[in-house]
Fold this sequence. Notes:
Layout: H1 13-37, E1 41-47, H2 53-60, E2 69-73, H3 88-91, E3 100-104, H4 113-117, H5 122-141, E4 145-152, H6 155-167, H7 177-184, H8 186-200, E5 207-211, H9 215-239, H10 271-295, E6 299-305, H11 311-319, E7 327-331, H12 337-340, H13 346-349, E8 358-362, H14 371-375, H15 380-400, E9 403-410, H16 413-425, H17 435-442, H18 444-458, E10 465-469, H19 473-492
Parallel strand pairs: 1-3, 1-4, 2-3, 4-5, 6-8, 6-9, 7-8, 9-10
Helix pairs in contact: 1-9, 6-7, 10-19, 11-19
Amino acid sequence: MLDQVNLQKTTMKEEYKPESRRLKEELARLQQVIKEKKLPVIILFEGWSAAGKGGLISDLILTLDPRNFKVYSTLSPTEEERRRPLLWRHWQVIPPRGQMTILDRSWYQEVSVERLEQELDDKEVARRMDSIRTFERQLTDDGYLILKFFLHISKKEQKHRLEKLAESENTSWRVTKLDWHRNRHYDRYYEAFDQMLEETSTENAPWHPVSCHDRRSALIEIYHTVIDAIEAAVEKKENAPAVIHPIDPGPFHLVPMPRLADIDLDRQVSEEDYDRLLKKKQEKLHRLHNELYQRKIPVIVGYEGWDAAGKGGNIKRVAAALDPRGYAALPIAAPTPDELNRQYLWRFWTRLPKTGHIAIFDRTWYGRVMVERLEGFCSEDDWHRAYREINEFEQELVGWGAVLVKFWLHIDKDEQLRRFTDRQNTPAKQWKITDEDWRNREKWDLYEVAVDDMLRLTSTDFAPWTIIESNDKKFARLKALTTLIDAIENRLMR
Protein backbone atom coordinates (compact mmCIF):
# COMPACT_ATOMS: atom_id res chain seq x y z
CA MET A 1 0.00 0.00 0.00
CA LEU A 2 2.81 2.44 0.82
CA ASP A 3 4.39 2.03 -2.60
CA GLN A 4 1.29 3.68 -4.10
CA VAL A 5 1.81 6.93 -2.17
CA ASN A 6 3.08 9.79 -4.32
CA LEU A 7 5.81 11.37 -2.20
CA GLN A 8 6.37 14.12 -4.79
CA LYS A 9 2.90 15.60 -4.36
CA THR A 10 2.94 19.35 -3.60
CA THR A 11 0.50 22.24 -3.17
CA MET A 12 1.47 25.82 -3.92
CA LYS A 13 1.08 28.44 -1.18
CA GLU A 14 -1.29 30.63 -3.20
CA GLU A 15 -3.53 27.63 -3.80
CA TYR A 16 -3.31 26.39 -0.23
CA LYS A 17 -4.42 29.53 1.63
CA PRO A 18 -7.97 29.97 0.25
CA GLU A 19 -8.57 26.23 0.08
CA SER A 20 -7.44 25.55 3.65
CA ARG A 21 -9.55 28.46 4.93
CA ARG A 22 -12.63 27.06 3.22
CA LEU A 23 -11.98 23.54 4.49
CA LYS A 24 -11.41 24.66 8.08
CA GLU A 25 -14.70 26.55 8.07
CA GLU A 26 -16.48 23.52 6.64
CA LEU A 27 -15.02 21.19 9.28
CA ALA A 28 -16.03 23.60 12.06
CA ARG A 29 -19.58 23.57 10.67
CA LEU A 30 -19.60 19.79 10.46
CA GLN A 31 -18.50 19.50 14.08
CA GLN A 32 -21.86 20.99 15.06
CA VAL A 33 -23.62 18.55 12.74
CA ILE A 34 -21.76 15.70 14.45
CA LYS A 35 -23.04 16.94 17.80
CA GLU A 36 -26.63 17.35 16.58
CA LYS A 37 -26.75 13.97 14.85
CA LYS A 38 -24.93 12.23 17.73
CA LEU A 39 -22.30 10.83 15.38
CA PRO A 40 -19.21 9.56 17.27
CA VAL A 41 -15.97 10.11 15.33
CA ILE A 42 -12.49 8.66 15.85
CA ILE A 43 -9.60 10.09 13.84
CA LEU A 44 -6.27 8.37 14.35
CA PHE A 45 -2.83 9.21 13.05
CA GLU A 46 -0.05 6.69 12.64
CA GLY A 47 3.17 7.07 10.69
CA TRP A 48 6.90 7.62 10.78
CA SER A 49 8.71 9.57 13.48
CA ALA A 50 9.19 13.19 12.28
CA ALA A 51 6.39 12.82 9.72
CA GLY A 52 4.61 15.75 11.37
CA LYS A 53 1.76 14.18 13.34
CA GLY A 54 1.76 16.83 16.05
CA GLY A 55 1.69 19.77 13.68
CA LEU A 56 -0.99 18.27 11.46
CA ILE A 57 -3.22 17.48 14.44
CA SER A 58 -2.75 21.02 15.78
CA ASP A 59 -3.82 22.45 12.45
CA LEU A 60 -6.77 20.08 12.15
CA ILE A 61 -8.28 21.13 15.51
CA LEU A 62 -7.51 24.84 15.15
CA THR A 63 -11.07 25.95 14.38
CA LEU A 64 -12.90 23.23 16.31
CA ASP A 65 -14.84 23.73 19.55
CA PRO A 66 -12.60 22.18 22.24
CA ARG A 67 -15.66 21.14 24.26
CA ASN A 68 -16.58 18.60 21.62
CA PHE A 69 -13.31 16.76 21.04
CA LYS A 70 -10.38 15.27 22.91
CA VAL A 71 -6.84 14.55 21.73
CA TYR A 72 -4.94 11.60 23.17
CA SER A 73 -1.31 10.66 22.67
CA THR A 74 -0.81 6.90 22.78
CA LEU A 75 2.48 5.94 24.36
CA SER A 76 3.91 2.50 25.02
CA PRO A 77 1.69 0.69 27.55
CA THR A 78 2.59 1.11 31.19
CA GLU A 79 3.20 -1.88 33.44
CA GLU A 80 -0.32 -1.42 34.82
CA GLU A 81 -1.82 -1.37 31.31
CA ARG A 82 0.05 -4.52 30.37
CA ARG A 83 -1.87 -6.26 33.15
CA ARG A 84 -5.10 -5.72 31.20
CA PRO A 85 -6.30 -7.13 27.88
CA LEU A 86 -4.63 -5.74 24.75
CA LEU A 87 -7.44 -3.35 23.83
CA TRP A 88 -8.45 -2.36 27.37
CA ARG A 89 -6.64 0.99 27.36
CA HIS A 90 -8.02 1.86 23.94
CA TRP A 91 -11.62 1.21 24.95
CA GLN A 92 -11.11 3.85 27.66
CA VAL A 93 -10.84 6.68 25.10
CA ILE A 94 -13.64 5.94 22.64
CA PRO A 95 -15.85 9.04 22.46
CA PRO A 96 -19.52 9.35 23.38
CA ARG A 97 -22.01 9.96 20.59
CA GLY A 98 -21.71 13.46 19.15
CA GLN A 99 -18.04 13.84 20.12
CA MET A 100 -14.68 13.40 18.39
CA THR A 101 -11.57 11.63 19.61
CA ILE A 102 -8.30 12.39 17.84
CA LEU A 103 -5.43 9.99 18.45
CA ASP A 104 -1.73 10.72 18.04
CA ARG A 105 -0.87 7.04 17.53
CA SER A 106 -3.27 4.32 18.54
CA TRP A 107 -3.86 0.60 18.98
CA TYR A 108 -1.76 0.06 15.87
CA GLN A 109 1.42 0.49 17.87
CA GLU A 110 0.77 -3.04 19.16
CA VAL A 111 1.04 -4.55 15.67
CA SER A 112 3.69 -2.35 14.10
CA VAL A 113 6.59 -1.07 16.20
CA GLU A 114 5.91 -3.51 19.08
CA ARG A 115 6.00 -6.33 16.56
CA LEU A 116 9.67 -5.64 15.91
CA GLU A 117 10.79 -4.20 19.22
CA GLN A 118 9.20 -6.95 21.32
CA GLU A 119 9.96 -9.63 18.72
CA LEU A 120 6.37 -10.87 18.55
CA ASP A 121 5.87 -14.12 16.69
CA ASP A 122 3.60 -14.31 13.65
CA LYS A 123 0.83 -16.07 15.59
CA GLU A 124 0.63 -13.28 18.17
CA VAL A 125 0.70 -10.59 15.48
CA ALA A 126 -2.15 -12.34 13.63
CA ARG A 127 -4.15 -12.56 16.87
CA ARG A 128 -3.69 -8.87 17.55
CA MET A 129 -4.63 -7.93 13.97
CA ASP A 130 -7.82 -9.96 14.30
CA SER A 131 -8.63 -8.30 17.63
CA ILE A 132 -8.21 -4.86 16.07
CA ARG A 133 -10.39 -5.68 13.06
CA THR A 134 -13.08 -6.97 15.42
CA PHE A 135 -12.79 -3.89 17.66
CA GLU A 136 -13.19 -1.51 14.73
CA ARG A 137 -16.06 -3.50 13.19
CA GLN A 138 -17.98 -3.50 16.48
CA LEU A 139 -17.60 0.27 16.72
CA THR A 140 -18.58 1.01 13.13
CA ASP A 141 -21.53 -1.40 13.34
CA ASP A 142 -22.66 0.72 16.29
CA GLY A 143 -22.51 3.89 14.20
CA TYR A 144 -18.96 5.10 14.84
CA LEU A 145 -16.96 6.75 12.08
CA ILE A 146 -13.29 5.71 12.15
CA LEU A 147 -10.77 7.59 10.02
CA LYS A 148 -7.24 6.19 9.88
CA PHE A 149 -4.31 8.17 8.46
CA PHE A 150 -0.78 6.87 7.94
CA LEU A 151 1.71 9.72 7.49
CA HIS A 152 4.41 8.58 5.06
CA ILE A 153 7.88 9.95 4.38
CA SER A 154 10.98 8.39 2.85
CA LYS A 155 14.01 7.21 4.79
CA LYS A 156 16.07 10.08 3.44
CA GLU A 157 13.46 12.66 4.40
CA GLN A 158 13.08 11.19 7.87
CA LYS A 159 16.83 11.31 8.47
CA HIS A 160 16.97 14.93 7.29
CA ARG A 161 14.16 15.94 9.69
CA LEU A 162 15.66 14.09 12.65
CA GLU A 163 19.02 15.79 12.04
CA LYS A 164 17.33 19.20 11.86
CA LEU A 165 15.44 18.57 15.12
CA ALA A 166 18.59 17.33 16.85
CA GLU A 167 20.58 20.42 15.88
CA SER A 168 18.35 22.82 17.80
CA GLU A 169 18.44 23.13 21.58
CA ASN A 170 14.69 23.69 21.57
CA THR A 171 13.83 20.49 19.70
CA SER A 172 16.69 18.08 20.31
CA TRP A 173 14.76 16.47 23.19
CA ARG A 174 12.22 15.21 20.65
CA VAL A 175 14.77 12.93 18.97
CA THR A 176 15.47 9.69 20.82
CA LYS A 177 17.81 6.77 20.31
CA LEU A 178 14.77 4.77 19.28
CA ASP A 179 14.03 7.28 16.48
CA TRP A 180 17.54 6.81 15.10
CA HIS A 181 17.22 3.03 15.44
CA ARG A 182 14.00 3.08 13.45
CA ASN A 183 15.57 5.20 10.74
CA ARG A 184 18.58 2.89 10.44
CA HIS A 185 16.21 -0.07 10.12
CA TYR A 186 13.69 1.81 7.98
CA ASP A 187 13.20 -1.08 5.56
CA ARG A 188 12.17 -3.50 8.33
CA TYR A 189 9.69 -1.02 9.77
CA TYR A 190 8.41 -0.22 6.26
CA GLU A 191 7.60 -3.89 5.76
CA ALA A 192 5.83 -4.11 9.13
CA PHE A 193 3.84 -0.92 8.51
CA ASP A 194 2.88 -1.99 5.01
CA GLN A 195 1.61 -5.38 6.17
CA MET A 196 -0.34 -3.69 8.96
CA LEU A 197 -2.02 -1.36 6.47
CA GLU A 198 -2.85 -4.13 4.04
CA GLU A 199 -4.34 -6.44 6.67
CA THR A 200 -6.35 -3.85 8.60
CA SER A 201 -7.69 -1.66 5.79
CA THR A 202 -11.31 -2.76 5.76
CA GLU A 203 -14.45 -1.53 4.08
CA ASN A 204 -15.77 -0.18 7.37
CA ALA A 205 -12.44 1.40 8.46
CA PRO A 206 -10.06 1.92 5.50
CA TRP A 207 -6.56 3.35 5.77
CA HIS A 208 -5.63 6.66 4.13
CA PRO A 209 -1.86 6.82 3.54
CA VAL A 210 -0.78 10.46 3.13
CA SER A 211 2.46 11.81 1.67
CA CYS A 212 3.96 14.23 4.21
CA HIS A 213 6.95 15.53 2.28
CA ASP A 214 4.86 18.63 1.59
CA ARG A 215 2.89 19.78 4.65
CA ARG A 216 0.39 21.89 2.73
CA SER A 217 -0.49 19.02 0.44
CA ALA A 218 -0.87 16.64 3.37
CA LEU A 219 -3.22 19.01 5.22
CA ILE A 220 -5.44 19.58 2.20
CA GLU A 221 -5.71 15.83 1.65
CA ILE A 222 -6.52 15.15 5.30
CA TYR A 223 -9.16 17.91 5.44
CA HIS A 224 -10.86 16.65 2.29
CA THR A 225 -10.86 13.07 3.54
CA VAL A 226 -12.29 13.98 6.95
CA ILE A 227 -14.99 16.26 5.54
CA ASP A 228 -16.07 13.80 2.84
CA ALA A 229 -16.24 10.94 5.35
CA ILE A 230 -18.28 12.93 7.88
CA GLU A 231 -20.72 14.10 5.21
CA ALA A 232 -21.14 10.54 3.95
CA ALA A 233 -21.65 9.23 7.51
CA VAL A 234 -24.27 11.89 8.28
CA GLU A 235 -26.12 11.17 5.04
CA LYS A 236 -26.06 7.44 5.80
CA LYS A 237 -27.34 8.05 9.33
CA GLU A 238 -30.20 10.19 8.02
CA ASN A 239 -31.23 8.34 4.86
CA ALA A 240 -30.01 4.75 4.95
CA PRO A 241 -32.87 2.24 5.34
CA ALA A 242 -32.92 0.29 8.59
CA VAL A 243 -31.26 -3.08 8.07
CA ILE A 244 -31.89 -6.05 10.32
CA HIS A 245 -29.12 -8.60 9.94
CA PRO A 246 -29.83 -12.24 10.70
CA ILE A 247 -28.70 -13.63 14.06
CA ASP A 248 -25.11 -14.82 13.76
CA PRO A 249 -23.12 -16.13 16.75
CA GLY A 250 -19.90 -15.92 14.73
CA PRO A 251 -17.39 -18.57 13.66
CA PHE A 252 -17.21 -20.27 17.04
CA HIS A 253 -17.71 -23.84 18.23
CA LEU A 254 -20.90 -23.87 20.31
CA VAL A 255 -21.47 -26.29 23.18
CA PRO A 256 -24.97 -27.88 23.09
CA MET A 257 -27.14 -26.64 25.96
CA PRO A 258 -30.42 -28.05 27.34
CA ARG A 259 -33.58 -25.97 27.25
CA LEU A 260 -34.57 -24.47 30.59
CA ALA A 261 -37.78 -26.47 30.55
CA ASP A 262 -35.73 -29.69 30.61
CA ILE A 263 -33.68 -28.85 33.71
CA ASP A 264 -34.33 -30.98 36.81
CA LEU A 265 -34.82 -28.51 39.66
CA ASP A 266 -35.32 -31.08 42.43
CA ARG A 267 -31.62 -31.33 43.32
CA GLN A 268 -31.01 -30.67 47.02
CA VAL A 269 -28.39 -30.93 49.74
CA SER A 270 -28.88 -31.58 53.46
CA GLU A 271 -28.09 -28.89 56.01
CA GLU A 272 -25.32 -31.03 57.51
CA ASP A 273 -23.65 -31.73 54.17
CA TYR A 274 -24.03 -28.09 53.15
CA ASP A 275 -22.20 -26.73 56.19
CA ARG A 276 -19.37 -29.23 55.84
CA LEU A 277 -18.93 -28.85 52.08
CA LEU A 278 -19.29 -25.06 52.09
CA LYS A 279 -16.40 -24.68 54.53
CA LYS A 280 -14.26 -27.15 52.59
CA LYS A 281 -14.85 -25.48 49.22
CA GLN A 282 -14.35 -21.96 50.54
CA GLU A 283 -11.03 -22.95 52.07
CA LYS A 284 -9.95 -24.45 48.75
CA LEU A 285 -11.02 -21.38 46.77
CA HIS A 286 -9.07 -19.19 49.20
CA ARG A 287 -5.88 -21.19 48.53
CA LEU A 288 -6.46 -21.01 44.79
CA HIS A 289 -6.93 -17.24 44.95
CA ASN A 290 -3.42 -16.91 46.40
CA GLU A 291 -1.99 -18.97 43.55
CA LEU A 292 -3.92 -16.95 40.97
CA TYR A 293 -2.42 -13.78 42.38
CA GLN A 294 1.11 -15.15 42.35
CA ARG A 295 0.77 -16.36 38.76
CA LYS A 296 -1.06 -13.17 37.68
CA ILE A 297 -4.07 -15.02 36.25
CA PRO A 298 -7.30 -12.98 36.13
CA VAL A 299 -10.74 -14.47 36.82
CA ILE A 300 -14.09 -13.16 35.61
CA VAL A 301 -17.31 -14.62 36.99
CA GLY A 302 -20.62 -13.62 35.44
CA TYR A 303 -23.93 -14.19 37.21
CA GLU A 304 -27.24 -14.15 35.38
CA GLY A 305 -30.54 -15.69 36.43
CA TRP A 306 -34.17 -15.19 37.26
CA ASP A 307 -35.17 -12.48 39.73
CA ALA A 308 -35.03 -13.99 43.25
CA ALA A 309 -32.93 -16.93 42.00
CA GLY A 310 -30.36 -16.27 44.73
CA LYS A 311 -27.58 -14.43 42.91
CA GLY A 312 -26.77 -12.20 45.88
CA GLY A 313 -26.44 -15.04 48.37
CA ASN A 314 -24.45 -17.11 45.88
CA ILE A 315 -22.01 -14.27 45.23
CA LYS A 316 -21.68 -13.68 48.96
CA ARG A 317 -20.52 -17.29 49.55
CA VAL A 318 -17.95 -17.04 46.76
CA ALA A 319 -16.68 -13.64 47.91
CA ALA A 320 -16.37 -14.87 51.53
CA ALA A 321 -13.57 -17.19 50.38
CA LEU A 322 -11.55 -14.46 48.66
CA ASP A 323 -8.96 -11.97 49.83
CA PRO A 324 -10.89 -8.66 49.79
CA ARG A 325 -7.86 -6.88 48.34
CA GLY A 326 -7.96 -9.08 45.25
CA TYR A 327 -11.55 -9.08 44.05
CA ALA A 328 -14.40 -6.74 43.18
CA ALA A 329 -18.12 -7.54 43.11
CA LEU A 330 -19.69 -5.43 40.38
CA PRO A 331 -23.47 -4.96 40.39
CA ILE A 332 -24.68 -4.04 36.89
CA ALA A 333 -27.73 -1.80 36.83
CA ALA A 334 -29.44 -0.04 33.95
CA PRO A 335 -26.83 1.87 31.89
CA THR A 336 -26.22 5.50 32.79
CA PRO A 337 -26.63 8.24 30.13
CA ASP A 338 -22.85 8.26 29.70
CA GLU A 339 -22.83 4.49 29.14
CA LEU A 340 -25.77 4.65 26.73
CA ASN A 341 -23.78 7.16 24.69
CA ARG A 342 -21.12 4.58 23.82
CA GLN A 343 -20.93 1.10 22.32
CA TYR A 344 -22.63 -1.11 24.90
CA LEU A 345 -19.56 -3.26 25.70
CA TRP A 346 -17.63 -0.14 26.76
CA ARG A 347 -18.99 -0.25 30.29
CA PHE A 348 -17.79 -3.83 30.70
CA TRP A 349 -14.38 -3.36 29.08
CA THR A 350 -13.71 -0.50 31.51
CA ARG A 351 -14.55 -2.72 34.52
CA LEU A 352 -12.23 -5.63 33.72
CA PRO A 353 -9.81 -6.73 36.46
CA LYS A 354 -6.05 -6.69 36.18
CA THR A 355 -4.05 -9.89 36.18
CA GLY A 356 -4.17 -11.84 39.43
CA HIS A 357 -7.50 -10.27 40.44
CA ILE A 358 -11.10 -11.49 40.32
CA ALA A 359 -14.16 -9.62 39.05
CA ILE A 360 -17.62 -10.93 39.95
CA PHE A 361 -20.37 -9.44 37.79
CA ASP A 362 -23.86 -9.42 39.28
CA ARG A 363 -25.59 -9.31 35.88
CA THR A 364 -23.49 -8.85 32.78
CA TRP A 365 -23.20 -7.93 29.12
CA TYR A 366 -25.99 -10.47 28.49
CA GLY A 367 -28.56 -7.82 29.34
CA ARG A 368 -28.30 -6.90 25.66
CA VAL A 369 -29.97 -10.14 24.57
CA MET A 370 -32.45 -10.35 27.44
CA VAL A 371 -33.89 -7.25 29.09
CA GLU A 372 -32.77 -4.85 26.33
CA ARG A 373 -34.12 -7.20 23.68
CA LEU A 374 -37.50 -7.68 25.37
CA GLU A 375 -38.06 -4.17 26.69
CA GLY A 376 -37.11 -2.45 23.42
CA PHE A 377 -34.07 -0.67 24.87
CA CYS A 378 -32.08 -1.48 21.72
CA SER A 379 -33.02 -2.13 18.10
CA GLU A 380 -33.66 -5.61 16.73
CA ASP A 381 -30.47 -5.36 14.70
CA ASP A 382 -28.53 -4.40 17.85
CA TRP A 383 -29.45 -7.56 19.73
CA HIS A 384 -29.08 -9.72 16.63
CA ARG A 385 -25.46 -8.53 16.34
CA ALA A 386 -24.84 -8.92 20.06
CA TYR A 387 -24.47 -12.72 20.10
CA ARG A 388 -21.41 -12.54 17.90
CA GLU A 389 -20.07 -9.43 19.65
CA ILE A 390 -20.39 -11.14 23.03
CA ASN A 391 -18.64 -14.27 21.80
CA GLU A 392 -15.85 -12.10 20.40
CA PHE A 393 -15.57 -10.19 23.68
CA GLU A 394 -15.30 -13.41 25.66
CA GLN A 395 -12.76 -14.81 23.19
CA GLU A 396 -10.62 -11.73 23.88
CA LEU A 397 -10.84 -12.34 27.63
CA VAL A 398 -9.89 -16.02 27.36
CA GLY A 399 -7.15 -15.23 24.83
CA TRP A 400 -5.74 -12.72 27.32
CA GLY A 401 -5.46 -15.59 29.80
CA ALA A 402 -8.53 -15.07 31.97
CA VAL A 403 -10.59 -17.77 33.63
CA LEU A 404 -14.15 -16.98 32.52
CA VAL A 405 -17.08 -18.64 34.28
CA LYS A 406 -20.73 -17.90 33.45
CA PHE A 407 -23.66 -18.95 35.65
CA TRP A 408 -27.37 -19.00 34.88
CA LEU A 409 -29.23 -19.43 38.19
CA HIS A 410 -32.43 -21.27 37.38
CA ILE A 411 -35.62 -21.61 39.41
CA ASP A 412 -39.14 -22.48 38.40
CA LYS A 413 -42.06 -20.08 38.27
CA ASP A 414 -43.66 -21.39 41.46
CA GLU A 415 -40.45 -21.01 43.46
CA GLN A 416 -40.07 -17.45 42.22
CA LEU A 417 -43.61 -16.61 43.33
CA ARG A 418 -42.95 -18.10 46.76
CA ARG A 419 -39.80 -15.99 47.17
CA PHE A 420 -41.47 -12.82 45.86
CA THR A 421 -44.32 -13.28 48.35
CA ASP A 422 -41.89 -13.94 51.20
CA ARG A 423 -39.98 -10.77 50.39
CA GLN A 424 -43.11 -8.69 50.15
CA ASN A 425 -44.44 -9.97 53.49
CA THR A 426 -41.15 -9.69 55.41
CA PRO A 427 -40.24 -6.11 56.42
CA ALA A 428 -36.52 -6.83 56.45
CA LYS A 429 -36.69 -8.15 52.88
CA GLN A 430 -39.12 -5.70 51.28
CA TRP A 431 -36.28 -3.67 49.75
CA LYS A 432 -35.48 -6.69 47.58
CA ILE A 433 -38.83 -6.66 45.74
CA THR A 434 -39.90 -3.97 43.25
CA ASP A 435 -42.73 -3.33 40.83
CA GLU A 436 -40.29 -4.12 38.04
CA ASP A 437 -39.80 -7.64 39.44
CA TRP A 438 -43.54 -8.26 39.17
CA ARG A 439 -43.64 -6.81 35.64
CA ASN A 440 -40.76 -9.05 34.56
CA ARG A 441 -42.57 -12.05 36.03
CA GLU A 442 -45.53 -11.38 33.74
CA LYS A 443 -43.13 -11.82 30.81
CA TRP A 444 -41.66 -15.09 32.11
CA ASP A 445 -42.43 -17.03 28.91
CA LEU A 446 -40.83 -14.37 26.70
CA TYR A 447 -37.76 -14.25 28.92
CA GLU A 448 -37.48 -18.03 28.83
CA VAL A 449 -37.31 -17.94 25.02
CA ALA A 450 -34.63 -15.23 25.18
CA VAL A 451 -32.60 -17.15 27.77
CA ASP A 452 -32.76 -20.36 25.74
CA ASP A 453 -31.50 -18.40 22.72
CA MET A 454 -28.72 -16.88 24.81
CA LEU A 455 -27.57 -20.23 26.17
CA ARG A 456 -27.71 -21.85 22.75
CA LEU A 457 -25.84 -19.10 20.89
CA THR A 458 -23.20 -18.05 23.43
CA SER A 459 -22.10 -21.27 25.13
CA THR A 460 -18.76 -21.68 23.37
CA ASP A 461 -16.04 -24.24 23.95
CA PHE A 462 -13.85 -21.49 25.47
CA ALA A 463 -16.66 -19.88 27.55
CA PRO A 464 -19.44 -22.39 28.25
CA TRP A 465 -22.49 -21.66 30.35
CA THR A 466 -23.19 -23.49 33.59
CA ILE A 467 -26.83 -23.76 34.57
CA ILE A 468 -27.17 -23.76 38.37
CA GLU A 469 -30.28 -25.50 39.71
CA SER A 470 -31.35 -22.96 42.35
CA ASN A 471 -34.66 -24.06 43.80
CA ASP A 472 -32.44 -25.20 46.68
CA LYS A 473 -30.15 -22.23 47.36
CA LYS A 474 -27.69 -24.33 49.31
CA PHE A 475 -27.23 -26.77 46.45
CA ALA A 476 -26.80 -23.81 44.08
CA ARG A 477 -24.06 -22.25 46.20
CA LEU A 478 -22.08 -25.47 46.37
CA LYS A 479 -22.40 -26.10 42.63
CA ALA A 480 -21.21 -22.58 41.82
CA LEU A 481 -18.18 -22.96 44.10
CA THR A 482 -17.37 -26.39 42.64
CA THR A 483 -17.64 -25.12 39.07
CA LEU A 484 -15.44 -22.09 39.80
CA ILE A 485 -12.82 -24.23 41.58
CA ASP A 486 -12.72 -26.72 38.70
CA ALA A 487 -12.28 -23.94 36.14
CA ILE A 488 -9.44 -22.35 38.11
CA GLU A 489 -7.66 -25.69 38.65
CA ASN A 490 -7.92 -26.50 34.94
CA ARG A 491 -6.35 -23.13 34.12
CA LEU A 492 -3.56 -23.57 36.65
CA MET A 493 -2.61 -26.95 35.19
CA ARG A 494 -1.75 -25.47 31.80
